[in-house]
TrEMBL record, chain A:
Annotated transmembrane regions: 12-33, 64-91, 103-131, 151-174, 195-216, 269-291
Statement: the UniProt record of this protein carries the keyword Transport: yes
Protein encoded by which gene: pstA
Residues covered by the ABC transmembrane type-1 domain: 65-288
Membrane topology term: Multi-pass membrane protein
NCBIfam families: 3a0107s02c
Name of protein: Phosphate transport system permease protein PstA
Pfam families: BPD_transp_1
Subcellular location: Cell membrane
From TrEMBL, chain B:
Function in brief: Part of the binding-protein-dependent transport system for phosphate; probably responsible for the translocation of the substrate across the membrane.
Underlying gene: pstC
GO molecular function, one term: phosphate transmembrane transporter activity
Organism name: Stigmatella aurantiaca (strain DW4/3-1)
Key words, A-Z: Cell membrane, Membrane, Phosphate transport, Transmembrane, Transmembrane helix, Transport
Subcellular location: Cell membrane
Cross-referenced InterPro entries: MetI-like, MetI-like_sf, Phosphate_PstC
Annotated protein name in UniProt: Phosphate transport system permease protein
Length: 303, 336
């Protein structure tokens, strides 16, 4: 009798936690459905290939797409070498109780928790005023050239923001390379750096790519850090140099959602922009998940 | 030759090797150089953190050193009630660009706390219960489906969540509860909850799955039901990790910007009602930095808010990482 009650209570509470999980999934589904319903009809080739017109009440998002792609490409170029080499240091070169390695780990954990808007302040204070200002003085520009918001400073700011993502996933990838491969290579007379270049890094490549993809998907969606380091409200021309400003999908979404004179008229454009942004990040995340499960399976088979 | 070099290399640690062939020496130098470059790169993470502290604090420093800034935005003006006009009761007001700047941070603190409170109220039970379900009760298949779904939720850019809160939640909640202001702390807090549920879920689930199977088996063998096992054995064992999950979620909620900027109404009002519009610390930086005069007291003030946000989240992060380690230590008996 008592046992039966305990079971019923247990079953009830179990389904309660199940309900919580269901609720989370439902929220995701609701967001997706709403964005799909509002935007699916408006994502046309014209929308993707044309600039906004009529004070952003009409037209497309091509400059924003282009700007987002250029920004994330630059960011990836900046973050990958640094992130991968840091992870290589932590996993391949540092001894486990090294003090430097411990400090690096503490720094990464904290870097991951710094609010994105603070990265924006950092980009403004360090990259634009300090580095940019210094470059202008050194090159003798009379007007501000580097000491103002640009795609270069925005992408470097994002590179700092995504550094922990790359380091953590690269380290995970390095861990998945079996120790035997390293010892076999060393036993054949290869040096540590030869082992690294020809055995360890190729073995970890899928995991490193996962990190790159995750960093891109995170970086492409962040708006707060680029608000005052380079994103522009509206630009008639595409960015042509590193010192240009740029349009951005996320910033465009923010602008359309909060600063439109007629929200009803902009609604289709807004929904279509959000749909494109969401599909881009989901596609990237999906790619990362697929590569990761494949690598994990392969690593599991190798043992 | 190669083999010899390797042996010499390992011997070099303990024994002084009298002669190295020129190739082997060159190789040794190259290896050292590469190791040096890699070690140097590892400093970047530390350097980035230090540079963030230095350069955000540097721009805020004028509040202490510059006489004009010190007068316009003194600590008493930031944190104590001020009489705006003679004969009026003292108030807390944030109006940094009026003819007489009023720079009380109290409305911003209240706004941040309100949105964070709402989001934690929703996200903690949902995230922890969801994690408990995934770790303890869900069949394996369901669990393997649940985790990537929640990762997807974590991947949604915050500007999209802000858009969703602004366009959909705000109308829905106003129709349901009849809020006076369409954009308010509840709308922003719910949007925020969408952003921090995945954080809490992931960290809590990690902590729960770290509990060894033997604990569960022992409990079941003593006749406890799965629920009792989860509640009285697994949950207490993972408790510090779950607390860490909540602390991390809290830190994320305090620092999150775009959702609040878009869905809170951005009015710096001192009130206790969750139905009023609010302005948070983070959204204030985002909204005002664009138009501020570089080097003005207002500019320094915005960087000072950045310093506050950095310090809050830094402390929360340290607490969370200590608690996460505690779980591992407790479960392995301090072996690792």
């Amino acid at each position: 009798m008592k046992h039966a009650t305990r079971r019923t209570v247990g079953a009830a509470l179990t389904s309660l936690t199940g309900l919580a999980a269901l609720l989370i999934v439902t929220m995701l589904a609701l967001i997706l459905l709403d964005v799909l319903r509002g935007g699916a009809g408006h994502v046309t080739w014209e929308f993707l290939s044309q600039p906004p017109s009529d004070g952003m009440m009409r037209g497309g998002i091509f400059p924003a797409l282009y700007g987002t792609a250029a920004l994330t490409l630059l960011m990836t170029l900046a973050v990958m070498p640094v992130g991968v080499l840091t992870a290589v240091y932590l996993h391949e070169y540092a001894s486990p109780d090294s003090r430097l390695a411990r400090w690096v780990r503490v720094a990464i954990v904290n870097l991951a928790g710094v609010p994105s808007i603070v990265f924006g302040l950092f980009g403004l204070g360090f990259f634009i005023h300090f580095v940019g200002g210094g470059m202008d003085r050194m090159m003798g520009y009379q007007t501000m050239h580097w000491a103002q918001p640009s795609i270069l400073w925005a992408s470097l700011t994002l590179a700092v923001l995504t550094l922990p993502v790359v380091i953590v996933s690269t380290e995970e990838a390095l861990r998945a390379v079996p120790m035997d491969h390293r010892t076999a290579s060393l036993a054949l007379g290869a040096t540590q750096s030869q082992t690294l270049m020809r055995v360890v890094l190729p073995g970890a490549l899928p995991g490193i790519l996962t990190g790159a993809v995750l960093a891109v998907s995170r970086g492409a969606g962040e708006v707060a850090p680029i608000l005052f380091t380079g994103a522009a409200y509206f630009l008639p021309d595409l960015p042509t140099s590193l010192s240009s400003q740029f349009m951005h999908l996320g910033y465009h979404t923010y602008v359309l959602a909060t600063q439109s004179p007629d929200i009803e008229a902009t609604r289709p454009l807004l929904y279509a922009t959000v749909l494109v942004l969401l599909m881009l990040t989901f596609a990237l995340n999906l790619v990362a998940v697929v590569i990761r499960t494949r690598t994990r399976r392969r690593a599991a088979n190798a043992h | 030759m190669d083999r010899e070099a390797l042996m010499q290399q390992s011997l070099a640690e303990t024994v002084v090797v009298p002669q190295l062939s020129p190739t082997a020496r060159r190789r040794q130098i190259r290896e050292k150089a590469i190791a040096g470059i890699i070690t140097l790169m590892a400093f970047t993470g530390i350097a980035a953190l230090v540079l963030i502290i230095v350069f955000v604090a540097k721009e805020a420093l004028a509040l202490f050193t510059d006489a004009h800034a010190r007068e316009e935005a003194s600590f008493s003006k930031m944190f104590l009630p001020q009489v705006a006009r003679q004969g009026r009761p003292p108030t807390f007001t944030w109006q940094p660009v009026s003819s007489i700047p009023k720079v009380s941070m109290i409305p911003l603190f209240i706004g941040t706390l309100k949105t964070t409170f709402v989001s934690m109220l929703v996200a903690v039970p949902l995230g922890v219960a969801g994690a408990l379900f995934a770790a303890e009760f869900a069949p394996r298949r369901l669990r393997e489906f649940l985790k990537p779904i929640i990762e997807l939720l974590a991947g949604i850019p915050s500007v999209v969540l802000g858009f969703f809160a602004l366009m959909v939640l705000a109308t829905l909640l106003q129709d349901t509860f009849g809020f006076t202001y369409r954009l308010n702390a509840v709308v922003a807090g719910l949007g925020l909850a969408l952003a921090i549920v995945p954080v809490i879920f992931t960290v809590a689930e990690d902590a729960l799955t770290a509990v060894p199977r033997s604990y569960r088996e022992a409990s079941l063998a003593l006749g406890a039901t799965p629920w009792e096992t989860a509640w009285k054995v697994v949950l207490p064992a993972a408790a510090p990790g779950i607390l860490a999950a909540c602390v991390l979620g809290f830190g994320r909620a305090i620092g999150e910007t775009m959702i609040i900027l878009m869905a809170s109404g951005n009015a710096a009002i001192v009130s206790s009602s969750l139905g009023d519009s609010v302005r948070s610390l983070s959204a204030t930086i985002a909204a005002e930095m664009g138009e501020v005069v570089v080097g003005s007291p207002h500019y320094s003030l915005l960087f000072f808010i950045g310093v506050e946000l950095f310090v809050f989240t830094f402390v929360l992060n340290m607490v969370a990482s200590v608690w996460t380690k505690k779980v591992l230590k407790r479960l392995t008996g301090g072996a690792s």
